[in-house]
Amino acid sequence: MGSGFSNGVAINLERSNPLYYADECVSGTVQLSVIEEKLKTHEIYIRLVGEIGYTTTRSVSDGRGQTTTHTEYHHIPFYTLKIDFAQLSAGQEQLVYNQGQYSWPFQFSLSGSLPPSINLPQSYPHVRFYLQVVIGRAWYRPNTRETRYITIFPRVNLVQNPRCLTTTLFGTQNRKEISLKGTLNKIGIVPGEVLMLTLELYNPRRVRIQCIDLLLFESFQIACNSRELIVFEVTLPNIIERSDEYIQEVLPVNIPSVLLPPSCDFQNGLRSVPRVHLRYFMKFAVKVQGMFTNFHVDVPVIVGTECIASPLVSSQFNQQMIADYDPPPPYSSVVQQNVK
């Protein structure tokens, strides 16, 4: 399997970047090079498959008190489209292609309610999409298959969810009475943009604060498998080796221009198809001098694919935001009083 030639079959896409949004079309051409003297088949088709993959383990006893653990791999298709290129006609026993070059165009219109591609196609757990050409052979000969993976994201415009553009407050406190209060100008993010972060630290004992690390995590659960990946990590400037009683900093946070699947909670209503839940959160990890003094706070964020509004929608949205604006709550209400 692969994206190049294999047994004389190639899948060529119309675009060089195999990233598609769920309201677009996947189109291209299948090329067949008949290398043998003749190719005999009963069908040729291409299909687009969306598949959820995960693993389970089970213990197997050998009857002598020894047990081994086996990993089982599960592949659950939840979305399939098919285009036939060649089929047998009534009374026809086989299709014969002589040596030469053959090609067929194809186009699939994607559903608007697909989950995003998650994780690498060969890693588990995953949500993956692929195109596959099948050349059907006689029952005693294996079919020829050529597979090409593509990336599909649902289109998530943060402007359509006003909550994504609202300010969020967070806070926590450690056993040394160091209180952290923070404000993000919005909880919805798009790769490549800049967030504005305001941090306030109250340090009555003037303990040395070594640094504050900011990490963005991608966390997903597919069936019974879960994973957490660090998208990026940065040490915030201007808060390094400081012991001020009060610190306030306004900092830009640059979200890397990397390919991030948007936040989602996918359930297609069928019990046989596992749930896919993908979320993101920012972790502010405060490193403090001393034993057992480090602390952190997690802030959920929503990742979208775009943040675009027409002038009319933008004007209406801004007016609504102004009308609905409430002043932020007092500091005491956002600082968690639990001792870390």
UniProtKB/TrEMBL annotation:
One Pfam family here: Arrestin_N
Question: What InterPro entries does the record point to?
Answer: Arrestin-like_C (IPR014752), Arrestin-like_N (IPR011021), Arrestin_C-like (IPR011022), Arrestin_domain-protein (IPR050357), Ig_E-set (IPR014756)
> Any idea where the Arrestin C-terminal-like domain is?
174-308
Signal sequence interval, chain numbering? none
GO annotation, cellular component aspect = cytoplasm
Which Gene Ontology BP terms does the record give?
A: protein transport
Taxonomically, the superkingdom here is Eukaryota
Tell me which family the UniProt entry assigns to this protein.
Answer: Belongs to the arrestin family.
User: What name goes with this protein?
Assistant: Arrestin C-terminal-like domain-containing protein
Species of provenance: Adineta ricciae (Rotifer)
The organism's lineage? Eukaryota, Metazoa, Spiralia, Gnathifera, Rotifera
